[in-house]
Amino acid sequence: MTEVRDRGETTQGYAAPPRPDATLARPRFRASRGATPSCHGDVPGAAAPAGSPVVALVGAPNVGKSTLFNTLTGAKRTVGNWPGTTVEVGRGVWPTTRAAATCDCETCTCPRQAEPVTFTLVDLPGAYSLDPASPDEALTRELLVDVEPDELPDAVVVIADAAHLARSLYIVAQVRELGLPLVVALTMNDVARHRGIEIDTYALAEQIGAPVVAVDPRRRQGESNLAAAVLGVLDAERPAPRAVDLPGHDGSPCGAMCPLADCGLEDLELADERFEWIDGAVHAGTRDTGDARRVRSDLIDRFVTAPVLGPVIFLAVMWLVFQITTTVAAPLQDALDGIFTGPVSDGTRGVLAGVGLGGTPVEGFLVDGLVAGVGMLLTFVPLMALMFLLLALLEDSGYMARAAVVTDRMMRRIGLPGRAFLPLVVGFGCNVPAVAATRILPNARQRVLTALLVPFTSCSARLTVYVLLATTFYPRQAGTVVFAMYLVSILLVVAVGLLLKSTLWRTMGADPLVIDLPPYQLPTARLTLSVMWQRLKGFLRTASGIIVATVCVVWLLQSIPAVSGAGFGEVPVSDSVYAAVAKSIAPLLSPAGFGQWETVSALVVGFIAKEAVISSWAQTYAIAEPASEREPGQLGAQLHQTFEMASGGHTGAALAAFMVFLLAYTPCVATLSAQKREIGLRWTVFGVLLQLVVAWALAVATFQIGRMIW
């Protein structure tokens, strides 16, 4: 069963969800007391001055919280028009100004100047309430409720969806009960107007007992008003906790307005009181203009979430993404390849010859190592940028949330809720944040199962290898080949999920999907380009360090002779330690059709990072074929020869088997580290063994069956 909240529905009868069965390590707000940084949320190198006020951003998933955080701090935190994009605490610096005080002089000649102010802004994981149903919600509660008084934030900004105000005010009610300085920031105001809802921020603020400010972080509107409101609550006395005139726990009147925490109400009674308070706030602060137009999102969703047409549309969209990516990026890749194999390599050789290092191991390291390896990877920058741009457009438009609805039936078959599709979608970009995103799932067994399935999603690092092989062997069908690999990845997730559910998790039931579908919106150029650049920069930052280190290690191993009589740096690569290690493993992969040491060594290097597969090939063939040193970009011909020799002429079958093995075998070490942190060492080791067995079995089956066809 799939329950889709159409973003116009008010949920009634709320009962506090149970506490989760797992919690996260608690970071602190005060950086001086050991704050735990987010891997993707902090502003690099930025720190607020000591004593700066700490402002916490709180709100339900998908209300624009992280977008507002990025706008105010200049950070590049993961954002998306779909739930579950914030799973860690982000910290940044919010610079703003305090308006100059008015002058009482009759004839004012006093200079007035705005005073600069700096806040430490903390972006908490998305939470519908402070009654946690998942570890990320539990973390938000811990940082606002279960902390020492000196660890509380100085102010809290709750982000509320103006188009669905009632749903957003539940957590506002709970924060008011804490007595923390509070500001409510209203987003989605354009959607509210489209639905015929007019918000009276002044009346709403009076009813809530806290300032209410309309903001649009996607268009950078309302920032100064929000800063003024935060400064106002910081300058004012700390508000008293929200109180009501209710009987105490013994049935007698409190005798005064009673803080809710002291009135002894049961959970349901407390929830009913909050909903009554919410109804009063909505009634006072909103007006139906009668100008509601038929919602465009509802019209589109009739097709994109349909049981049969929805999956077809999803596959067609993804095929189009890969087709555009491979077609448009190809000329740019060729141009960059020509630069590195021509002017850069020749220039490096000329410089080395001028200083007397021509023909030495230094030339081999710089030209055949760094230039060949790093240069080959950099040729994929246009492809990655285009890929990230297209995915950012899909996310910002709101389509990715519909993908969860489309795949809900498939997810429930393997014992996972449709919400588990969200971490898996993240995995197609990078497996590391995808493993962390499993925190949005309320059940511990669901989190473990999802974390084990994430490595079977084809990350962007694998994409570079797919494109290289597809354009080399099937240049006219490259987009379709890459799409096929992503389709195999989805089928592999389902198949392994069914295997695990039928063996280890036989008793795990399937939960219905309950998800807020965000409205479709026209992507903004600033936000889309920002997300694209954020992901591309992250890819390059991660890949650059790993690739340079890997290139150095590979060059060193290729320079050490495995046989006596040869000097360092003078041995053919086939007689090096690098090749000797690969040759000892190669027989295991001979049944899969790619048992040559050149391909096996690349897979070994790929265990460190999948991007390194390409650089290791570039090094191997550049060194192994001295006659082609001036053309290390002729990698395709070398790969053709290798696969043909290893497969006995069944090149297509061997290529398919290799790509399947690359998809299914162990992820990079960074993903394994994330798995160890989230699900423990025992399950991580189990996952590695499972992936190796699945990868080998699928590769062998693919080749043995494929050789009968190709």
Question: If you average the pLDDT, what whole number results?
Answer: 78
Side by side, the strands of the main sheet go 3-4-2-5-6-8
Globular, elongated, flat, extended or rod-shaped: what is the shape? elongated
**Cα separation of the termini:** 43 Å
Unreliable parts: 1-27, 31-45, 79-84, 624-633
- Helix content bin: 40-55%
- Which strand-content bin applies to the residues? 5-15%
Number of strands: 12
User: Can you summarize the main beta sheet?
Assistant: 6 strands, mixed
Class of secondary structure makeup: alpha/beta
Number of domain modules = 2
Number of helices: 26
Q: Whole-number radius of gyration?
A: 29 Å
Describe the model:
By secondary structure, this protein is α/β, with parallel strands linked by helices. It has 2 domains: 33-102 and 112-288, 3-Layer(aba) Sandwich (Rossmann fold), CATH 3.40.50.300; 309-505 and 541-706, no CATH class. It contains 26 helices and 12 strands. A 6-stranded mixed beta sheet has the order 3-4-2-5-6-8, with helices on both faces. Helix 3 links the parallel strand 5 (155-161) and strand 6 (182-187). Helix 17 (460-473) packs across helix 23 (635-647) and helix 23 packs across helix 24 (651-664).
Annotate the secondary structure layout.
Elements: E1 2-5, E2 54-59, H1 65-73, E3 90-98, E4 115-123, H2 135-144, E5 155-161, H3 165-178, E6 182-187, H4 189-194, E7 197-199, H5 201-208, E8 212-214, H6 223-235, E9 243-244, E10 258-259, H7 267-285, E11 286-288, H8 296-304, H9 309-354, H10 361-378, H11 381-397, H12 399-406, H13 408-413, H14 421-427, H15 431-436, H16 444-453, H17 460-473, H18 478-503, E12 513-516, H19 525-559, H20 577-589, H21 597-606, H22 612-624, H23 635-647, H24 651-664, H25 669-679, H26 681-706
Parallel strand pairs: 1-12, 2-4, 2-5, 5-6, 6-8
Antiparallel strand pairs: 3-4, 7-11, 9-10
Helix pairs in contact: 3-7, 5-7, 9-10, 9-11, 9-18, 10-19, 10-22, 11-19, 17-18, 17-23, 17-24, 18-24, 19-22, 20-21, 21-22, 23-24, 24-26, 25-26
